[in-house]
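Section: protein folds

Sequence with per-residue tokens
===
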Amino acid sequence: MWNYGLGMTYIVVPLYAQSCGLSGIEIGLLFSIPVFFQVVFNLVGGAYTDRFGGRRIMLISCWLVAAGGVGFIFAAQFWTLFICQVLMVLSRAAFWPATWALASELPGERGKQMGRLNALTNVGQITGTTAAGFILAGLGYTASFITLACMGVLGYVCGVRSHEAKRKAHTPGASVFAPYTSLLRRRVIYYAVMCAYLSALPFSLSMSFYPLLFKDFGFSPETSGLFLALRAAGSIGAGLIAARFVQSGPRSLSPVVAGMSVACAVGLIPAINHAAPIALSMVLVGLGSGVMTLYFQITMSEVTDLTERGSALALGGLGWGLSHFTTPLALGWISDHYGMIPGFYCIGAFALLWTGVIALLRPWAFMHTKLAN
């Protein structure tokens, strides 16, 4: 339910912002500046997940979606839209580390459990993104935002009866942020954050400039919703099929293959204005980002214990936040000065370069960890 609402925002919010008269750079700012709040709240949420468990944090995130949906109904200018976006990014910052930590506690093989979680959340995004195009075309923006708010409430109803592992009693007087001190001394954590950054790049484009590119190409909101749903479908394939092949460690080629898929799919999507190659690119970018997401989740979980896992996964979420900040802002600036299509070419080239850096850093990152061999 939560991801149904998130999927809706990918279509509705950027188109609504454009309909309100915002420029390309203003739309980029709308999606990037609130990420400052996400970065801070992400680290706070990860620390409190370790202290109190992911369930409470997850439930709070559902109410933030509901509040954001209600706020969008009345927003019509940059600053009112900005406040609503802050609520949405705070919800993302709380939701992901909390649910990842909950999934890491489940019995069974960790990679498969993470894959199932990612697949299920992407099912929500598919239905939400697809439905958003039809709701928007048939009923307008107000009905879309009411539906978004309802999804937040339904997410709370679904999650309120969930369970989690019992937390160990913390040392009296110990700071809730103490796990970060240990985590930030480990090379592999920085490496995993880099992987998380690249895994989030397609999400950053989905919630900002993908819908605008498809609109410029002449596609309807319904078709744009279907294109974005194909990205989520590719991630489902990664979660259910590729999960059994994704392994961590310095010799794993998973991040390299996934990064190249993301880079090629993002950089080449504007090359041909036709539904078939666009659809193929969206599936490929979803598959690549899904594999990369699984890789950094497994890596973070394997090199940490339960008392610091929420904080570690929150640092992974920090990589997502940095992507959500830099990608829309950079593409918005390039769009205003050189055009949207050159902007996608530049983002694709950057992703390819980032993949090369990840490939070179693998041996260095896993040195002195239990996965070194």
Notes: The CA atoms of residues 133 and 139 lie 10 Å apart. The chain has 15 helices and no strands. The chain has a mean pLDDT of 83. The radius of gyration is 19 Å.
